[in-house]
Write a structure and sequence with these properties.
- By secondary structure, this protein is α+β, with helices and mostly antiparallel strands.
- It contains 5 helices and 6 strands.
- It has a 6-stranded antiparallel β-sheet with strand order 1-2-3-4-6-5.
- Helix 2 crosses helix 4.
- The protein is globular and about 35 Å long.
- The mean pLDDT is 91.
């Protein structure tokens, strides 16, 4: 019998690993879901485990225009999340066939939206920090 490694198959564990790889990130529950903060202040990613609908995913900060482009272009993968969607945040489904390299890029973009310049410089100096 082959044992599955939860760190490679559990979407929460995989998302958590991507988030905490960024400089000065902390995790704590917010609105009942695991949420990741830069310097324990600014949210950049929040897990969405069937809290508002029957789908598994996460919400994240996104550069201007990205939400519209992705939701319109790939509605099977992306959505406009409640509460923060009007601010341009992106919803990403995790109950589909997930491209984790792409998720890593989305998480890093979200981090870059809220992190201060000093942490961005640190991220850019240490290319492994966002892996």
């Amino acid at each position: 019998m082959v044992k599955r490694d939860p760190a490679r198959t559990d979407p929460l564990m995989r998302l958590r690993a991507l988030c905490v790889a960024m400089p000065e990130v902390t995790e704590r529950p917010s609105h009942g879901e695991p949420t990741w903060f830069v310097r324990d202040k600014k949210v950049f990613v929040s897990y969405a485990d069937h809290h508002h609908d029957d789908r598994l995913g996460f919400w994240c900060a996104a550069p201007e225009g990205v939400q519209t482009m992705l939701v319109e272009g790939e509605p099977e993968l992306f959505y406009r999340p409640p509460y923060v969607g009007h601010r341009g945040w992106l919803g990403v489904y995790l109950d589909v066939d997930v491209d984790w390299d792409r998720i890593a890029e989305i998480v890093e973009d979200a981090y870059r939206m809220v992190a201060p310049k000093r942490l961005l410089a640190q991220l850019d100096r240490d290319p492994g920090a966002g892996d």
